[in-house]
Sequence to fold (83 residues):
Amino acid sequence: MSDQPPEEIERHVVREIEKHRRLRNDAVMLEAKVDAATDSDTAREASQDYIQAMIAVHAQQTVVSTLIDILGYIPDMPKSKGH
Fold:
């Protein structure tokens, strides 16, 4: 990838940062489900979903970090849309 022009790498970085943010937001919502669970079966299932989501968040963080290392800087991000 290091043979790609910086603009192309930057597009990848921005896209992967946005993906990381989506994954993080999903994990936050799943954590709330764990906290709101009222019975042990629901809590166990919600906890498993949350753990799986956090694994994805951490894996995506590695992708983002690697791409930022290749690019050499953190690009400006487009304005995010409200929830």
User: Anything to note?
Assistant: The first helix runs from residue 6 to 36. The chain has one domain: 6-69.
